[in-house]
Design a protein that fits this description.
This protein is α+β, with helices and mostly antiparallel strands and 146 residues long. Helices cover 28% and strands 38% of the residues. The relative contact order is 0.16.
């Protein structure tokens, strides 16, 4: 399966991304709708992974000062464990590290996904906490310019 990762630039892809997130977070993981749809999408940078014309993964990134906060990483269930999330995260990380003003990547990982992000260099910060009824850890990765 060939996966193409890209920035979301069309309103159609934006709508597809939101529907994919709704499917993964609200329907599958039972995240309350008001927690998933938080009103911050308009200020975020959105990314997608596609197999052909089908969007199979998505995420958003919010820039806060010199920190890029990676959020809402979602992969359709039938594509998990096939490297799709890895491809999307690598693409996002490469894109973000080319942005001169960013010196830190941050995310809130579901505890079950810690090994996935640790393999990419993220380090766990602080204690486990609950978010939307799911155990999470904050994680960071410094991205210094050379």
């Amino acid at each position: 399966m060939k996966v193409i990762c890209q920035e979301i630039t069309s309103s159609a892809d934006q709508n597809t991304s939101l529907a994919l997130r709704r499917r993964v977070f609200i329907e599958e993981q039972k995240v309350p709708p008001d927690r998933e749809v938080d009103g911050l999408d308009a200020e975020a940078w959105h990314f997608a992974a596609k197999a052909g014309d089908r969007m199979i993964a998505t995420c958003r990134v919010r820039l806060i000062d010199k920190t890029a906060k990676i959020e809402r990483v979602a992969v359709l269930r039938e594509f998990r464990g096939q490297g799709v999330g890895n491809a999307l995260m690598r693409f996002v990380m490469q894109t973000l590290t080319r942005t001169e003003s960013i010196n830190l990547l941050k995310l809130s990982s579901q505890t079950t996904a810690l090994p996935f992000y640790e393999k990419m260099g993220f380090k766990k910060k602080g204690a486990e906490y609950m978010d939307a009824g799911i155990p999470h850890h904050d994680m960071t990765l410094a991205v210094g310019k050379k």
